[in-house]
Design a protein that fits this description.
Blueprint: H1 4-8, H2 11-15, E1 24-25, E2 28-29, H3 43-56, H4 66-86, E3 94-97, H5 100-115, E4 121-125, H6 134-143, E5 146-150, H7 160-166, E6 171-177, H8 189-198, E7 203-206, H9 218-221, E8 225-229, E9 240-244, H10 246-251, E10 262-265, E11 270-272, H11 286-302, H12 304-323, E12 328-331, E13 342-345
Parallel strand pairs: 4-5, 4-6, 6-7, 7-8
Antiparallel strand pairs: 1-2, 3-9, 8-9, 10-11, 12-13
Helix pairs in contact: 3-11, 4-11, 5-6
This protein binds pyridoxal-5'-phosphate.
């Protein structure tokens, strides 16, 4: 492959940072194409986690001895880094979770408890991952609310005309992916949020597939909630976060009970810790947070310009080469697209929106 961009960023020096790629698969150097499901880990992330367990492990926020204070500082450094990474206004707005799925469940449960009632509508889109469907269905069943779905057009973009009709005063929250995990579509999330806010509707953005690929600024987007998963951005599994505007998080009731989230417990009454700890029950994933810090460092050291240029080049190269195969049909040809190629070879599958469908994925 002739490539100025790939040569200029010395692709092999990046590859070498991923020890898992240094092996053969079916007699050939291993190439990994399933990063949207879970990315591989650079040596800096693996070493940071290993060093944490070798030298610093202890519980956080509760020990008055040196080791616990160091572990607490390492854990809280991940919050500082995450705040800066997303440009949140405050560290109180960064809640650590097990991943994007848990972060969405947290909002669906806690926001839902407080703000959703019978007859309300919850607006999703037809390109959501099931992690951004099922928690809302559970909420809708619990409260007698209704799920409404923004259709997807044939090129893999959202039907924005339909969106205008679906946004109405009955909608109490909209939950939408920033980048589709199957079609690669990058949704015009900022303008969609503006439209929703004009009607007073808060928006949760599923950023699991966006944050490894583009700079996200939650204040610029004006997202009310934004979720991500560390393992899709070179970090460890079992780690993710919820960004939430402080005004919402303050009003929302706790999700899980026990551990970090308590202030004072008696059998008669428990008072809850302040943000962000109110939503972080139990001993947190300390090593996961250390890994997340290292993953953010890895991304920032590579730089967004390089990441985006290489991705764009690989996407157009891959699409061009695949298109040369007879019977190749791509799914998801949005003008703004991330590095995912969904396709079929052989009989094309008809992709049309049916109002009865809840999801394409
Ligand atoms: N949202 C999107 C768009 C995803 O692609 C995924 C995982 O594939 C998730 C949410 C769920 O992420 P996790 O399983 O890490 O919680």
């Amino acid at each position: 492959m002739e490539s100025k961009v790939l040569d200029s960023v010395a692709v092999n020096t990046i590859r070498e940072q991923f020890p898992i790629l240094n092996q053969e698969m079916n007699g050939k150097p291993m190439i990994f194409l399933d990063s949207a499901a879970s990315s591989q880990k650079p040596v800096s992330v693996v070493n940071a986690i290993s060093e944490y367990y070798d030298k610093y492990h202890s519980n956080v926020h509760r020990g008055v001895y040196k080791l616990s204070q160091v572990a607490t500082d390492m854990f809280e450094l991940a919050r500082k880094k995450s705040k800066a990474f997303l440009n949140a206004a405050s560290e109180k707005e960064i809640i650590f979770t097990r991943g994007a799925t848990e972060a969405i469940n947290l909002v669906a449960y806690s926001f839902g408890e407080k703000f959703i009632k019978e007859g309300d509508e919850i607006l999703l889109s037809g390109m959501e991952h099931h992690s951004n469907i099922v928690p809302w269905q559970l909420l809708a069943e619990r409260k007698g609310a209704q799920i409404k779905v923004i259709p997807v057009l044939e090129d893999g973009t959202l039907d924005l005309e339909q969106l205008d009709e679906l946004l109405n005063p009955k909608v109490k929250i909209m939950a939408l992916t920033h980048v589709s995990n199957t079609l690669g579509t990058v949704n015009p999330i900022k303008s969609i949020i503006q439209k929703a806010h004009k009607q007073g509707i808060p928006v949760l953005v599923d950023g699991a597939q966006a944050v490894p690929h583009r700079k996200v600024d939650v204040q610029d987007l004006d997202a009310d909630f934004y979720v991500l998963s560390a393992h899709k951005m070179y970090g460890p599994t079992g780690m993710g976060l919820l960004y939430g505007k402080e005004k919402w998080l303050e009003e929302m009731p706790p999700y899980h009970g026990g551990g970090e989230m308590i202030e004072r417990v008696t059998f008669e009454k428990t008072t809850f810790n302040e943000l962000p700890f109110k939503f972080e029950a139990g001993t947190p994933n300390i090593a996961g947070a250390v890994g997340l810090t290292a993953a953010i460092d890895f991304i920032e050291n590579l730089g967004w310009e390089t990441i985006m240029k290489v991705e764009e080049e690989l996407l157009s190269y891959g699409t061009e080469r695949l298109s040369a195969i007879e019977g190749f049909t791509p799914y998801g040809i949005a003008p703004e697209k991330s590095g995912v190629i969904s396709f079929n070879i052989g009989q094309p599958i008809l992709m049309m929106w049916e109002p009865s469908w809840t999801s394409l994925v």
